User: Which sequence fits this backbone?
């Protein structure tokens, strides 16, 4: 679709252009001779160095199969140097150094370079013999430039991507191709990669699906929950841990807890009021783990209170109102574990020490 020649004014172009190489695979075409290319050629007064500081360097080799045709480079065009300083036939403004230096190898009927953008860029290409090829617009309807070379010789080509206006910065893709059917007017980026976009949300894996079902079973198994209010007395409950389900099979979040639990919680309570922290601790006759599901669906877990105490301690900072589900897991599947579960707001509380056997 034709674009307007209305130009947007930007900040002056830096001398060194940022270059991000984007490689796009496409089917190789073996074109014939090309005609009617929008470019002019004039001899160079003085040949520019093959490379300059800050110049990107690439190799294009049709003889090696040129599988990445078109070959795309993501960059920003523009500059403050008049392109006519390189050749009287060139227009617009370019950077002081070449944007890209191409090492061209092999043989092909055609090498075409063009810039694909939504601005008004210009293109200057210096061939190995020192001549300059320049272009402003591919056609009256397409403001992107195209430069084509029939039977290109091997060697180094310097490429400047500039802009029609001195203060313009033009982001886009510098494209190299050996295809006669492709130029700035006919490139369709969406046609180059056929892979459909990945879904935003990946399918839920079986473990998460099963865990969600078990949580629903766990909530249904709670016939009544004890009402606990901030500022109340500590609560202690006896328990027997004899579960066989790995605690991680109950969880739907990122944190994975250890131990073996039953689907039915060992304790459930409805919390209300404001507290700095609610401490949940276990004092048992063998190694245990502690798993708590908060009202917002998060899982908290604890194993050992410290390196010398196998009894777990879990501190819930600023507990929110709602229902909490608590499981005590056993570590040894060979025997059940008995003990006491305690909930308290007391600061600095610690479970009785259970040392490693």
Assistant:
């Amino acid at each position: 679709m034709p674009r307007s020649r209305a130009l947007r004014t930007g900040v002056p172009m830096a001398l060194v252009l940022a270059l991000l190489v984007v490689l796009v695979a496409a089917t190789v075409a073996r074109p014939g001779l090309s005609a009617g290319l929008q470019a002019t050629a004039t001899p160079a007064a003085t040949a520019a160095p093959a490379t300059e500081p800050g110049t990107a360097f690439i190799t294009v080799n049709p003889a090696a199969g040129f599988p990445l045709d078109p070959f795309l480079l993501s960059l920003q065009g523009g500059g403050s140097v008049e392109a006519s300083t390189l050749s009287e036939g060139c227009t617009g403004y370019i950077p002081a150094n070449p944007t890209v230096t191409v090492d061209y190898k092999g043989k092909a009927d055609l090498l075409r370079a063009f810039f694909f953008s939504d601005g008004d860029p210009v293109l200057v290409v210096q061939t190995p013999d020192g001549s300059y090829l320049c272009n402003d617009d591919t056609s009256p309807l397409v403001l992107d430039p195209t430069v084509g070379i029939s039977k290109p010789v091997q060697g180094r080509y310097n490429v400047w991507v500039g802009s029609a206006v001195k203060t313009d910065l033009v982001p886009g893709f510098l494209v190299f191709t050996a295809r006669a059917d492709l130029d700035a007017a006919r490139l369709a980026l969406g046609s180059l990669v056929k892979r459909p976009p990945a879904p935003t949300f990946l399918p839920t894996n079986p473990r998460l699906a099963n865990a969600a079902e078990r949580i629903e079973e766990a909530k249904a198994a709670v016939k009544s929950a004890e009402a606990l209010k901030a500022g109340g007395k500590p609560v202690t409950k006896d328990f027997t841990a004899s579960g066989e389900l790995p605690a991680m099979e109950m969880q739907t979040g990122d944190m994975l807890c250890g131990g073996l639990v039953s689907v039915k919680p060992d304790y459930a309570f409805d919390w209300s009021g404001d507290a700095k922290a609610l401490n949940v601790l276990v004092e048992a006759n063998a190694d245990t783990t502690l798993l708590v599901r908060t009202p917002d669906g998060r899982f908290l877990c604890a194993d050992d209170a410290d390196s010398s105490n196998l009894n777990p301690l879990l501190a819930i900072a600023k507990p929110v109102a709602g229902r909490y589900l608590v499981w005590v897991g056993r570590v040894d599947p060979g025997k059940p574990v008995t003990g006491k579960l305690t909930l308290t707001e007391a600061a600095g509380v610690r479970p009785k020490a259970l040392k490693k056997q």
The helical segments are 206-221. The mean pLDDT is 82.
